Automatic annotation (TrEMBL):
Entry keyword Hydrolase: yes
PANTHER family attached to this UniProt entry: ENDO-1,4-BETA-GLUCANASE
A Gene Ontology biological process term: cellulose catabolic process
Descriptive protein name: Endoglucanase
High-level lineage: Eukaryota, Viridiplantae, Streptophyta, Embryophyta, Tracheophyta
Biological source species: Tetracentron sinense (Spur-leaf)
Catalyzed reactions per annotation: Endohydrolysis of (1->4)-beta-D-glucosidic linkages in cellulose, lichenin and cereal beta-D-glucans
Residues annotated as the enzyme's active site: H414, D465, E474
Record-listed E.C. numbers: 3.2.1.4
Keyword match Hydrolase: yes
Length: 493
């Protein structure tokens, strides 16, 4: 990696002056962003479940979950562990996949050296989601592993001996939220593979349509159907209407089928389109849907989508200091702050939406209207860059919150496989309770979970590099997924 430039006092003063003019001084160049991009994609190899391929690059991992689904006579090998545990949760996995695909759709042309790896990261998930969606008619398998039992152990995924129970939603026990998000993931991925693998793309889109129909026809929240095993881990707090609109929007973009346009027009008002919401996450898709649909108005002047442009502007204006609509909270060091637990998930989704909306606006000569003031695409890029640079180390702690990037990054990651000796270094089984010695250890993780972005610092820019402090030190796939798009954008600048 290129050496960091040393900033003189004069340069620091210039940066301070420039920041007052809303320009951004950065310690990073395109080489740094490219390095971070490569690592952020590599992280997904550390989260893989199933039989690892011969080209697996994160070599300290081994095969795991090889019998997933077998006791239920269904093949559920593959997919991703969501974070530092060994459960395959369907809702965050599908959202991760949608955001990985969206990153490639918008910014894939800026990641030529990593596009194959990015597609492989998507396909590792879509192969699994296809199996989960097609194994049994009118059924979607949405989780593998009992999270309550899993969280009582500190075990490598290769050693798992906790119950690998399988959970599903069906016509009798619906899960419109997780099903519609799965449909969104398959539809978005179908766009990614349209040119490189047309037959796979077609299969993804056809399955997305079937899963969406199931989600819409048999309505209900999976939190009600599977409450004890999905709550409080990934409860659908926002309900399922946001996912239905999100899923329909992605299928429309992938298929250009006017029936989905009609669905959006008929249901938008009752599915959150009239509500302004200011966070975008695995749970709440409203603002992401508005940004996605605003493209239809900006590109083609579809008047029915003007509403989404207005609401997207409201969201954008809420983030920009100095506008009449500003309401976001930033730390003293300049980091967007939304929650005490895993705050960086909101930062990476926000940075991605800022850049995506900037792209949509820039392609059409548009601006975001903030009352009597306006915000340009350049303003959005500048704000996104501050968030990206903060994560990579331009912050009060001078710490990168991406593992393996920069000179200083967290060493005590809340992640079972990373914190325990590799199966290659320690082939003997490490039992459920024996692993807690490693959780409590003050030693750095023996395996570097390269590219993982952690939960991040608190509202005062303070970070505790402590494996037990999962709120700050745990990675997650849905933190990394949108960051890939953001990094690709800046790598190309």
């Amino acid at each position: 990696m290129a050496p960091r430039p040393t900033f003189s006092l004069t340069m620091q003063l210039l940066c301070l002056a420039f920041s007052m003019l809303t320009l951004v001084c950065s310690a990073f160049n395109s080489h740094d962003y490219s390095d971070a991009l490569q690592k952020s994609i590599l992280f997904f190899e550390g989260q893989r479940s199933g039989k690892l391929p011969s080209n697996q690059r994160l070599s300290w991992r081994g095969n795991s979950g090889l019998s997933d689904g077998s006791s239920y006579h269904v093949d559920l090998l593959g997919g991703y562990y969501d974070a530092g545990d060994n459960v395959k949760f369907g809702l965050p996995m599908a959202f991760t996949t949608t955001l990985l695909a969206w990153s490639v759709i918008e910014f894939g042309s800026s990641m030529p050296g990593q596009i194959d790896n990015a597609r492989a990261a998507i396909r590792w998930s879509t192969d699994y989601l296809l199996k989960a969606a097609t194994a049994t008619p009118n059924t979607l398998y949405v989780q593998v592993g009992d999270p309550n039992m899993d969280h009582r152990c500190w075990e490598r995924p290769e050693d798992m001996d906790t119950p690998r129970n399988v959970y599903k939603v069906s016509t009798q026990n619906p899960g419109s939220d997780v099903a519609a998000e799965t449909a969104a993931a398959l539809a978005a991925a179908s766009i990614v593979f349209k040119n490189s693998d047309p037959s796979y793309s077609t299969k993804l889109l056809q399955t997305a349509m079937k899963v969406f129909d199931f989600a819409d026809r048999y309505r209900g929240s999976y939190s009600d159907s599977l409450s004890s095993v999905v709550c409080p881990f990934y409860c659908s707090y926002s309900g399922y209407h946001d996912e239905l609109l999100w899923g329909a929007s992605w299928i429309h973009r992938a298929s250009q089928d006017n029936s989905y346009l009609a669905y959006i027009q008929s249901n938008g008002h009752t599915m959150g389109a009239d509500e302004d919401d200011y966070s975008f996450s695995w749970d709440d898709k409203r603002v992401g849907t508005k940004v996605l649909l605003s493209k239809g108005f900006l590109d083609k002047s579809v008047q029915e989508f003007q509403l989404y442009k207005v609401h997207s502007d409201n969201y954008i204006c809420s983030l920009v200091p100095g506008t009449s609509s500003f309401q976001a909270q930033y730390t003293p060091g300049g980091l967007l702050y939304k929650a005490s637990e895993s705050n960086l998930q909101y930062v990476t989704t926000t940075a991605f939406l800022l850049l995506t909306y900037a792209k949509y606006l820039g392609s059409n000569g548009g601006i975001a209207s903030c009352g009597t003031s306006t915000v340009t695409a350049e303003n959005l890029i500048s704000l996104a860059k501050k968030q990206v640079d903060y994560i990579l180390g331009q912050n009060p702690a001078k710490m990168s919150y991406m593992v393996g990037f920069g000179e200083k990054y967290p060493q005590h990651v809340h992640h079972r496989g990373s914190s325990l000796p590799s199966v290659h270094a320690h082939p003997d089984h490490i039992a459920c309770n024996d692993g807690f010695n490693y959780l409590k250890s003050g030693s750095p993780n023996p395996n570097v979970l390269t590219g993982a972005i952690l939960g991040g610092p608190d509202n005062r820019d303070s970070f505790s590099d402590d494996r037990n402090n999962y709120q700050q030190s745990e990675p997650a796939t849905y933190i990394n997924a949108p960051f890939i798009g953001a990094l690709a954008f800046f790598a190309a600048q």
